[in-house]
């Protein structure tokens, strides 16, 4: 059976236009971004041509999802047309059937983001990349730690002759120490205030209203359901194994009713896309915007298609991101569906971290900040592969029934303090 080019969610037709499909000529230096896309292209089955702008900065390729390779449409013309949409440059055919046919010297710049070369249709992971950073020991006199914690809390830690905490609870063998047990409640409360009320950076992409988002609690009321998508069945299967692991731990740690659901199983609050490289994000972006702008579209919510297309564009354009969440806060603080995208070709040391971080943050703890102590939610470095005890405490506080979505900070923070006191009555120092 001959199939049209399709998106997983909604079928679309690739129409050929009046586009010159010429092989490029002359020396060219390929940008880091296009170099990484070309690596994905080389490991993708049933591909068409790979096209490139004459300055090597913009690129695009097509592929056929039908296993037989029988697809309708002019693949070279469509690839060139989409390439030229990405920049004001003329595009030409660079490669065909995984082989470079550009007539001239080709130089590749290094990729600006860490994708592996075995992406394509085989979601295997690279074991050769370095481990995440290990935090240097924290001194027992650190002002963020309790000065006189209960003896049974201190017993889990080892302090050397210099006062440095050399050993203690860890999230994984050989990983960084999780200092949550010794952290002052005041530090936990201050971190919660930052992460729960400073969602403006992410929210601004969807609403433009940063100030309003800073003042109110953002959370889902009631059960939370997650849907997941992937182009490839094996990728989706591997992704679901990690999703189930993450959701299981969220349920245990926070008592939140959260689970993954399948098609036609009801409404969902989170939607996760497992992508094999940024080129897949570009395909989603382009097809969704075409659907949204089609005057004859039968889609119920073109505006939702535009929002999702913007989410994929943000991910595709951000060369330093392996995973991303677009939060679910709309006008009037209404919670909408949160979009999560994860590049499953990243090293395995990072992949599970991505799932934990983005799913937990999609629940309302949106903000990354390098000033956070003992937390997964930092940007420029990662000391932990999964949420720490402190991170789980913040999620548990957020989803306590006493805190309501839309509650202003002035009302919410005294309640958060009350909840934290119940969870850790021994965590306050005198005067705090």
Which of globular, elongated, flat, extended, rod-shaped describes the shape? elongated
Return the string of H and E elements.
EHEEHEEEHEEHHHEHEEHHEEHHH
What is the residue-mean pLDDT, rounded to a whole number?
77
CATH homologous group name of the largest domain = Collagenase (Catalytic Domain)
Strand content of the residues, in percent? 5-15%
Radius of gyration: 24 Å
Sheet with most strands:
5 strands, mixed
Could you tell me how far the N terminus lies from the C terminus, measured between alpha carbons in angstroms?
Answer: 71 Å
User: Runs with pLDDT <50, length 5+?
Assistant: 1-20, 110-133, 199-213
Q: Return the CATH class of the largest domain.
A: Alpha Beta
Written overview of the protein:
This protein folds into two domains: 28-108, no CATH class; 180-427, Collagenase (Catalytic Domain), CATH 3.40.390. The protein has helices at residues 32-42, 75-85, 151-154, 185-197, 200-203, 210-214, 233-254, 278-293, 302-317, 348-362, 389-398, 409-423, and strands at residues 28-30, 47-53, 59-63, 91-96, 99-100, 106-108, 158-159, 165-167, 224-229, 258-260, 270-275, 323-326, 338-343. The chain is α/β, with parallel strands linked by helices. A five-stranded mixed β-sheet has the order 10-9-11-13-12, sandwiched between helices.
């Amino acid at each position: 059976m001959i199939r049209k080019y399709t998106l997983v969610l909604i079928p679309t037709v690739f129409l050929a236009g009046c586009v010159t499909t010429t092989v490029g000529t002359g020396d060219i230096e390929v940008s880091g971004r296009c170099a990484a896309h070309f690596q994905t292209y080389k490991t993708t089955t049933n591909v068409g041509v790979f096209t490139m702008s004459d300055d090597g900065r913009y690129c695009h390729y097509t592929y056929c999802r039908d296993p037989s390779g029988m697809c309708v449409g002019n693949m070279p013309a469509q690839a060139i047309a989409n390439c030229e949409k990405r920049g004001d440059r003329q595009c030409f055919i660079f490669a065909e059937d995984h082989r470079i046919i550009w007539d001239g010297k080709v130089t590749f710049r290094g990729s600006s983001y860490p994708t592996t070369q075995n992406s394509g249709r085989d979601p295997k992971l690279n074991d050769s990349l370095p481990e995440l950073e290990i935090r240097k020991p924290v001194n027992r006199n650190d002002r963020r730690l309790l000065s006189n914690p209960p003896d049974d809390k201190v017993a889990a830690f080892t302090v050397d002759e210099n006062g440095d905490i050399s050993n203690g609870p860890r999230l994984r063998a050989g990983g960084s120490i999780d200092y949550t047990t010794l952290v002052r409640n005041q530090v936990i409360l201050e971190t919660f205030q930052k992460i729960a009320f400073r969602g403006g950076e992410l929210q601004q992409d969807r609403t433009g209203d940063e100030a309003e988002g800073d003042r109110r609690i953002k959370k889902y009321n009631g059960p939370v359901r997650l849907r997941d998508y992937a182009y490839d069945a094996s990728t989706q299967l591997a992704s679901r194994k990690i999703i189930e692991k993450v959701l299981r731990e969220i349920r245990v740690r926070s008592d939140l009713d959260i689970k993954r659901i399948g098609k036609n199983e009801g409404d969902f609050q989170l939607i996760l896309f497992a992508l094999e490289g940024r080129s897949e994000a570009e395909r989603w972006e382009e097809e969704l915007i075409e659907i949204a702008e089609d005057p004859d579209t039968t889609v119920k919510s073109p505006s939702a298609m535009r929002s999702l297309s913007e989410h994929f564009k943000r991910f595709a354009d951000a060369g330093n991101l392996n995973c991303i969440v677009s939060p679910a806060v709309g006008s009037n603080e209404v919670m909408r569906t949160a979009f999560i995208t994860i590049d499953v070709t990243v090293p395995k040391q990072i992949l599970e971290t991505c799932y934990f971080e983005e799913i937990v943050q999609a629940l309302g703890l949106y903000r990354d900040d390098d000033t956070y102590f003992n937390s997964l939610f930092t940007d420029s470095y990662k000391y932990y592969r999964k949420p720490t005890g402190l991170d789980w405490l913040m999620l548990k506080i957020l989803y306590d029934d006493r805190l309501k979505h839309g509650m202003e900070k002035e009302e919410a923070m005294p309640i958060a303090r009350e909840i934290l006191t119940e969870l850790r009555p021994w965590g306050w120092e005198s005067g705090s």
